[in-house]
Write a structure and sequence with these properties.
mainly alpha; signal; 124 residues; 5 helices
Length: 124
């Protein structure tokens, strides 16, 4: 009879221990997923430069390069790594160079599709 109770206590202890470990692992994962990693930001910059390759450049400014750095800078400073805001940030940045819709819209569509289809920005 004592061995049954000992076994029951052992099983309950093991369950509690596993629940504690799982909770700790989840909290740690959420904490590390809060901000974008350097690799994600580098991949994002490269994808933005690719999507904006047909955007006209000015004599002293390259919107493709500048917007890639500006948008990744926004995400680097953000509290969470939310890639869904990237198309809006990119659109605002490109319009800041007084570009027309026929230059901006394809670039924004490209980055949106890259993010939605998980082509862009993975840390692998």
């Amino acid at each position: 009879m004592a061995s049954k109770y000992s076994m029951l206590v052992l099983v309950i202890s093991a369950c509690c221990l596993m629940a504690g470990v799982s909770t700790g692992a989840i909290e740690k994962k959420v904490a590390t997923e809060g901000t974008c990693s350097k690799q994600v930001l580098d991949n994002l910059e490269a994808t933005i430069e690719l999507c904006t390759r047909n955007v006209p450049a000015e004599q002293f400014a390259d919107p493709s390069w500048e917007c890639a750095r500006t948008v990744s800078g926004y995400l680097e400073d953000a509290d969470e790594c939310d890639l869904s805001v990237v198309p809006d940030y990119l659109e605002d940045c490109l319009y800041g160079f007084f570009l027309r819709d026929h230059s901006v819209k394809p670039a924004v569509k490209c980055i949106k599709l890259a993010i939605e289809s998980d082509i862009c920005c993975s840390a692998e």
